[in-house]
Write a structure and sequence with these properties.
This protein is α+β, with helices and mostly antiparallel strands. It is built from eleven helices and 21 strands. Strands 11-4-1-13-12 form a five-stranded mixed β-sheet. Strands 15-16-14-17 form a four-stranded antiparallel β-sheet, covered by helices on one side. A hairpin with a 2-residue loop joins strand 19 and strand 20.
C-alpha cells in the first residue's frame, strides 16, 4: 500500500486553500515555513487561523508579505531561485514543474514568450509560498499518489491587472483543459495557482478512490459565501488496490434467432477468446420459447466479444457482470487406448488429482477410425487412466503437461 491524497475541489481550488487543507490534514507547518524560507528568505509570513465557512470548521492559511512589499518575478528568475534553494529534491522538482506549467499557460493566453512571463497576476511572493508550501506539505506527509475530483471553476467576471476578465479566467481555462470541470457557483472559484497545482500534481479521479482513510483536512478560502462552503478538502490514507476483475459474464435473452445458428454462434465466440459459452432454454413473456446466451469473458477480450455477440445474434442489448473464478490447476497425461495414444485431462489441487477425464475430440476421432461407439472408447480410456494411476486422490504425475486456464 502507499500513501494517497484525494482532493475534493468541488468548491473550487486556490493555492492557499490547498495548502491549508494539507496542513489541516497533518502536514508540518514548520516544514512548510522552512521550505518557503529557503526560496524567498524573510519575504513572507505564513499565518494559520481557524475559521468557519458556511457553518463548517476549516483552516485558513494567510500568506502575508513580511515588509509590505510584493516583488513580481519573471519565470526565468524564479526558476533560478527554486533551483538554487536547499529544498528536498521532490519538493524542488514538483515546484519547478508547477511553475513551468503556469508559465506556459500565462504565455499562451497573453501571447508572450515563456521566458518573458511575469507572475504579476498571482503575485510571485504568495504564489511561491503556495506552490512550494503545497509541494513541501505533500513531501512531509509522504504522499506518493495525488488525485482530484471535478473542479469548480466559477462563473461571471473578475477584475484583473488587464481589466475585467471572464470567469474562468483565461489562464485557468488553459490549465483546466482535458479535466472534468463544472461552474459550481458565482465568482472566481479556481485560481491559476490552484489549477496549476492540480494539473501537475493530481491525476483525475472523479470519485473518492479506495483507501483506508486516516484523516481529512479542510482548507478555507478568504470569502465566507452563504450556502456554499468555500473550502478545499483533502482525504488522506493508505491506498487499497481495486478488486481485480477476473472475468465477466455476458448474458442476453434471444427469441428470434434461427435455432440452427446457435452452434456456430458458440463456436465463433470461443474462437474470439471466450473462456466458455453456453445456452440456457427459457420461456419469455407470452410463453415464447427462447434462449439465454451466456459468455464467460476475460477482461482482455471484453470489447471484441461484446462486438461479436451483437454481430452474431439478433439481440439489442445484454447484461454484464464481473465474476470470480475458482479453477483447478490442469494438464494432461497420455495413455494407450485401443492401440492409440489418448490424452487424459487432469485437474489437480495442492499436488492431488481431483478429476481425470479423456479429451473429447481425440476420443471421438479414435472411435470413428476404429468404427466403435464413442461410449466404448471413453470407457476404455477410463480403464487406461485408472491403470496409469490417474485417479482422484492420487498424486499428480510429474509428466502432466500444464494447460492454460
Amino acid at each position: 500500500m502507499m500513501r494517497s491524497a484525494w482532493i475534493d475541489a468541488s468548491g473550487g481550488v486556490a493555492g492557499d486553500m490547498l495548502l491549508a487543507a494539507l496542513v489541516d490534514a497533518g502536514a508540518s507547518l514548520e516544514a512548510v515555513r522552512a521550505a518557503v524560507g529557503d526560496v524567498i528568505p524573510g519575504e513572507v509570513r505564513i499565518v494559520p487561523e481557524q475559521v468557519t465557512r458556511a457553518g463548517l470548521r476549516a483552516l485558513r492559511v494567510r500568506v502575508v508579505p513580511a515588509d509590505g512589499g510584493h516583488p513580481h518575478r519573471a519565470w526565468s528568475g524564479l526558476r533560478v531561485l527554486l533551483a538554487g534553494a536547499g529544498l528536498p529534491e521532490p519538493v524542488r522538482d514538483r515546484s519547478l514543474a508547477v511553475f513551468a506549467r503556469l508559465a506556459e499557460a500565462e504565455a499562451r493566453v497573453h501571447g508572450v514568450l515563456v521566458e518573458d512571463v511575469h507572475f504579476h497576476e498571482v503575485g510571485a511572493w504568495d504564489s511561491i509560498a503556495d506552490v512550494v508550501g503545497v509541494c513541501s506539505a505533500l513531501h512531509d506527509l509522504a504522499v506518493e499518489d495525488v488525485s482530484a475530483g471535478p473542479v469548480a471553476l466559477g462563473s461571471g467576471g473578475v477584475a484583473a491587472a488587464h481589466g475585467l476578465l471572464p470567469v474562468p479566467v483565461p489562464a485557468v481555462a488553459e490549465l483546466a483543459a482535458g479535466r472534468l470541470v463544472l461552474a459550481g457557483g458565482e465568482g472566481e472559484l479556481a485560481t491559476p495557482t490552484g489549477m496549476a497545482l492540480l494539473s501537475v500534481l493530481a491525476r483525475e479521479q472523479p470519485g473518492l478512490p479506495s483507501m483506508r482513510l486516516e484523516r481529512t483536512g479542510v482548507g478555507a478560502g478568504g470569502r465566507d459565501t452563504p450556502g456554499r462552503p468555500n473550502v478545499v478538502r483533502v482525504f488522506l490514507g493508505e491506498s487499497v488496490a481495486e478488486p481485480v476483475v477476473e472475468a465477466f459474464v455476458f448474458e442476453t435473452n434471444v427469441d428470434d434467432l434461427d435455432p440452427r445458428v446457435w452452434p456456430d454462434v458458440l463456436a465463433c465466440l470461443l474462437r474470439e477468446g471466450a473462456l466458455d459459452a453456453w445456452l440456457v432454454p427459457i420461456l419469455m413473456k407470452k410463453g415464447r420459447p427462447a434462449h439465454t446466451l451466456c459468455v464467460l469473458v476475460p477482461p482482455s477480450r471484453a470489447d471484441a466479444l461484446r462486438d461479436a455477440v451483437f454481430r452474431l445474434t439478433s439481440t439489442l442489448g445484454m447484461r454484464e457482470r464481473p465474476v470470480r473464478r475458482t479453477v483447478l490447476d490442469r494438464g494432461w497425461s497420455d495413455v494407450e487406448v485401443l492401440g492409440a495414444c489418448l490424452p487424459i485431462k487432469v485437474g489437480h489441487r495442492d499436488g492431488v488429482i481431483v478429476q481425470a477425464t479423456a479429451e473429447y475430440e481425440p476420443a471421438a476421432r479414435l472411435a470413428e477410425v476404429r468404427g466403435l461407439p464413442l461410449r466404448a472408447v471413453l470407457d476404455a480410456a477410463g480403464v487406461a487412466a485408472h491403470a496409469a494411476g490417474l485417479l482422484p486422490g492420487a498424486p499428480v504425475p510429474r509428466l502432466v503437461s500444464v494447460l492454460s486456464v
